[in-house]
Specification:
2 domains, alpha+beta, 9 helices, 34% strand, 2,3-Dihydroxybiphenyl 1,2-Dioxygenase, domain 1, binds fe (ii) ion
């Protein structure tokens, strides 16, 4: 039985000043949100749940909200030239603008982070309609990317005030994507530690893992990576920077085509990767190719696993193990023409790591694609 509190509990030195409930949504600025929405429905099995645009009173943009289990994507296009959205798309191509975080108190999240040095993007704003209220506020992070805090505890509507039911949607079947596992940022050479410090000092995250160029190098190129996580572990941000190699690193290629730092990939969890990848492939999603020799000594490397290795091989799914268990993973090819944003499909079977044992095979695969593009 709980004792009634007669006085405030003493503040712990480890008190989380930025409690996060998870990833609220990812908003992408894209050239043609209407067609992108079709792609994410048809290829990835997201359901179109809400829409905002001229018909709902927005004069300058159209936004489509797609959902699959706990993952929400918002696709936004400008209706006019010379807007912030148009300039973003012109410079970066399609890409993630908002990495939005679900909080209980958006004003407190904004004030706590700004007090610790965050650059404000938007002061707290209350959005209201017949279904309740949502409070948003946002701060800048690497490149032109923004963290938006979303407080929705007093809201029962579809997504946010201003959004309506979509006028049309594709009947879709989920491919089993469940929630966002981690979101990776690529930053410029020498900037990784600056951004790791930002997450530590400004957002109260902790450094979880460091990968140096010895962990992540192929014959041609290298990168360095540090993973930061919030207090409860619901939000994890690996930050990559290029390292010296014989040829151009995949991170440099990204930065050249994205014209700066930005979100490289979004990893989404599935509880059945064989089913998910089978469906995604059937619907036309392209994945990186890893040579069949990868599977020759798989059992020696990762030990016994529940999945049939012949099936994993036919789907080109990779496996890695850490002290907690194993994981299965696979990277899509970039989801737009620029070699920038892609998705990772991951199934964690105990493992808490990021597939270090697969880095070499995956990065060699990325380099084969880079070479085909003439960028290696
Ligand atoms: Fe990843």
């Amino acid at each position: 039985m709980n004792q009634p509190l007669t006085h405030p509990a003493p503040a712990s030195v480890n008190e989380d000043f930025l409690p996060l409930l998870g990833t609220d949504h990812l908003e992408l600025y894209v050239g043609n949100a209407k067609q992108s929405a079709y792609y994410y429905q048809a290829a990835f099995g997201y359901e179109l749940i809400a829409y905002a645009g001229p018909e709902t009173g927005l004069k300058d943009r159209a936004s489509y909200v797609l959902q699959q289990n706990k993952i929400r994507l918002v696709l936004t296009s400008s209706l006019h030239p010379d807007t912030e959205i148009s300039r973003h798309v012109d410079k970066h191509g399609d890409g993630v603008k908002f990495l939005s975080l679900w909080v209980d108190d958006a004003q407190a999240a904004f004030e706590a982070t700004v007090a610790r040095g965050a650059r404000p993007h938007q002061a707290p704003q209350v959005h209201e309609d017949a279904h309740g209220r949502v409070v948003t506020a946002s701060i800048h992070t690497y490149g032109d990317t923004v963290h938006r805090f979303v407080e929705r505890k007093d809201y029962q509507g579809l997504f946010m005030p201003g959004y309506d039911r979509p006028r049309w949607k594709l009947p879709v079947e989920s491919v089993g994507l469940q929630y966002v596992d981690h979101c990776v940022g690529n930053v410029e050479l020498g900037a990784m530690n600056t951004w790791v410090e930002f997450y530590e000092k400004v957002m109260g995250f902790q450094l979880l893992i460091t990968f140096d160029d010895k962990d992540i190098s192929t014959e041609y190129s290298a990168l360095m990576s540090k993973v930061v996580s919030n207090g409860n572990g619901y939000v994890k941000f690996p930050i990559n920077e290029p390292a010296d190699g014989k040829k151009k690193s995949q991170i440099e290629e990204y930065i050249e085509f994205y014209q700066g730092a930005g979100v490289q990939h979004i990893a989404v969890e599935t509880y059945d990767i064989v089913h998910t990848v089978t469906e995604l492939r059937r619907r036309g999603v392209e994945f990186l190719y890893v040579p069949e020799t990868y599977y020759d000594d798989l059992t020696e490397r990762v030990g016994a696993i529940d999945e049939d290795i012949a099936i994993l091989k036919s789907l080109n799914i990779l496996v890695d193990r850490d002290e907690h268990g194993y994981l299965l993973q696979l990277f899509t090819k970039p989801v737009q023409d620029r070699p920038t944003l892609f998705f990772e499909i991951i199934q964690r079977r105990g493992a808490k790591s990021f597939g270090k044992g697969n880095f070499k095979a995956l990065f060699e695969s990325i380099e084969r694609e880079q070479a085909l593009r003439g960028n290696l």
